[in-house]
């Protein structure tokens, strides 16, 4: 049986997230984009509302949301501001590998740090390296046993919250020659000796979020911080991304929806040739395509997230959702700028920011080409993750 009705809890979570986005995020979104940072008090309000740790189970102080509800909340947050939403969402990305594989002690130690309304901390998911992006099995951050601890050396790049995180989930290798077979994961606190922050990136969009290099130079990591043993790290990454990609797709829908609303209002108001431009079929059809594609995007991310919530395999659906919604958000925001004409190219109009923000949805958490590689492999009957490497 198919049921499109949300339950009361889901409705309440979406309503709360929308109100937060409308009243707290939207009023400062352009300023945060310009300044490249988020005010502390907004983060504290987000923590009080349970939005800094949506996917963390409630027994550790988190929002305890299932993937479907988390994805619908993500749509609202990205509607509010994609930069701020990315900052908050990165906490979930960093903790999902620990939700999957962490010990009770690790969860008790680290999860509450992200949920404290008085002093909420951030976490970072450290996978990408200068030489290992789409080809994650090529990572070169080396971990070695050394008596009662490990020694970690390497460099991560493009890490969301990299410069502001309290701790990181770090994917590393015990044996680079083994590729997938060598990968493990450890929790590394930013305060550990030898951890430093490299370049802070100056980005096209999602500018309110912090993206930075994180460098590990002979970092002593306690043995109890290993949470994914050698050989299981790559699988952990794949399962994590299957679970989180629906929220990224939902974020893309949120950006697209914001652009559609702006474009629709503008097209009704802007008069050229004696009538509102919405009466020109070329403009009207751009808006109808946006409306259709946003609705379709929402259904495909909800399907992927629903499957993830039920613990069902969702690799294919999450790739459909990420690629479709990311591409759709880019198309929608580009057309929203077009509908605004010259005004859309100016920073005082929200659509300018939305178009810059949309671009990341085709890149992070696996590019949209990589999603197509996954889908294409599935069409060929190859269901193993990363069959090409
Ligand atoms: C703002 C931002 C935030 C990010 N946050 C994080 C984070 O928090 N943690 C983290 O670990 N990473 C993060 N990333 C990294 C992101 O996931 C990578 O940038 C992404 O996976 C692509 O890797 P790459 O940039 O090295 O591109 P490459 O892998 O070098 O790809 C370059 C191009 O080649 C294409 N390509 C590569 N291989 C194939 C193939 N087999 N088939 C077809 N096309 C292919 C790609 O699609 C892309 O178009 C972030 C990136 C950005 C920009």
Write the layout of secondary structure elements.
Blueprint: H1 8-35, H2 40-48, H3 67-80, H4 82-101, H5 104-110, E1 123-126, E2 142-146, E3 149-160, E4 167-173, E5 183-189, E6 195-200, E7 211-222, E8 226-228, H6 233-269, E9 271-272, E10 275-276, H7 281-309, H8 315-339, H9 350-358, H10 368-379
Parallel strand pairs: 1-4
Antiparallel strand pairs: 2-3, 3-7, 4-5, 5-8, 6-7, 9-10
Bound molecules: flavin-adenine dinucleotide (FAD).
Any overview of this molecule?
By secondary structure, this protein is α+β, with helices and mostly antiparallel strands. It has 3 domains: 8-114, Butyryl-Coa Dehydrogenase, subunit A, domain 1 (Orthogonal Bundle); 123-231, Beta Barrel (Butyryl-CoA Dehydrogenase, subunit A, domain 2), CATH 2.40.110; 234-379, Butyryl-CoA Dehydrogenase, subunit A, domain 3. It has helices at 8-35, 40-48, 67-80, 82-101, 104-110, 233-269, 281-309, 315-339, 350-358, 368-379, and strands at 123-126, 142-146, 149-160, 167-173, 183-189, 195-200, 211-222, 226-228, 271-272, 275-276. The radius of gyration is 21 Å and the shape is globular. The mean pLDDT is 95. Bound molecules: flavin-adenine dinucleotide. Flavin-adenine dinucleotide (FAD) is lined by residues 90, 125-128, 133-134, 158-160, 203, 206, 211, 360, 363-367, 369-370, 373, 388.
């Amino acid at each position: 049986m198919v049921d499109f009705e949300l339950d009361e809890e889901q409705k309440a979570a979406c309503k709360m997230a929308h109100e937060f986005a409308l009243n707290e995020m939207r009023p400062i979104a352009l300023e945060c984009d310009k300044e490249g940072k988020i005010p502390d008090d907004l983060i504290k309000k987000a923590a009080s509302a349970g939005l800094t740790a949506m996917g963390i189970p409630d027994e550790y102080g988190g929002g305890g949301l299932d993937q479907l509800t988390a994805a619908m909340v993500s749509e609202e947050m990205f509607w509010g501001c994609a930069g701020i939403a990315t900052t908050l969402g990165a906490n979930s990305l960093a903790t999902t590998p620990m939700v999957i594989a962490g010990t009770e002690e690790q969860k008790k130690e680290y999860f509450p740090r992200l949920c404290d309304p008085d002093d909420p901390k951030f976490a970072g998911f450290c996978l990408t390296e200068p030489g290992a992006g789409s080809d994650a099995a090529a990572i070169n951050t080396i971990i070695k046993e050394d008596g009662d601890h490990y020694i970690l050396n390497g460099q991560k790049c493009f890490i969301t919250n990299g410069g502001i995180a309290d701790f990181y989930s770090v994917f590393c290798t015990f044996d680079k020659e083994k590729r997938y077979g060598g990968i493990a994961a450890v929790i590394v606190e930013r305060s550990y000796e030898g951890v430093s922050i490299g370049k802070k990136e100056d980005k096209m969009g999602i500018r309110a979020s912090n993206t930075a290099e994180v460098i590990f130079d002979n970092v002593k990591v306690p043995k109890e911080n290993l949470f994914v043993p050698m050989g299981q790290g790559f699988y952990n990454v794949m399962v994590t991304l299957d679970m989180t990609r629906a929220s990224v797709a939902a974020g893309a829908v949120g950006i697209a929806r914001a652009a559609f609303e702006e474009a629709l209002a503008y097209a009704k108001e802007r008069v050229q040739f004696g009538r509102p431009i919405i009466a020109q079929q070329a403009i009207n059809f751009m808006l109808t395509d946006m409306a259709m594609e946003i609705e379709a995007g929402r259904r495909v991310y909800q399907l992927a997230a629903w499957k993830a919530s039920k613990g069902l395999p969702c690799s294919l659906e999450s790739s459909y959702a990420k690629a479709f919604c990311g591409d759709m958000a880019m198309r929608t925001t580009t057309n929203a700028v077009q509908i605004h004409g010259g005004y859309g190219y100016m920073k005082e109009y929200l659509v300018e920011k939305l178009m810059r923000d949309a671009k990341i949805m085709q890149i992070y958490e696996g590019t949209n080409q990589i999603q197509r590689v996954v889908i294409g492999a599935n069409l060929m009957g190859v269901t193993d993750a990363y069959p090409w490497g």
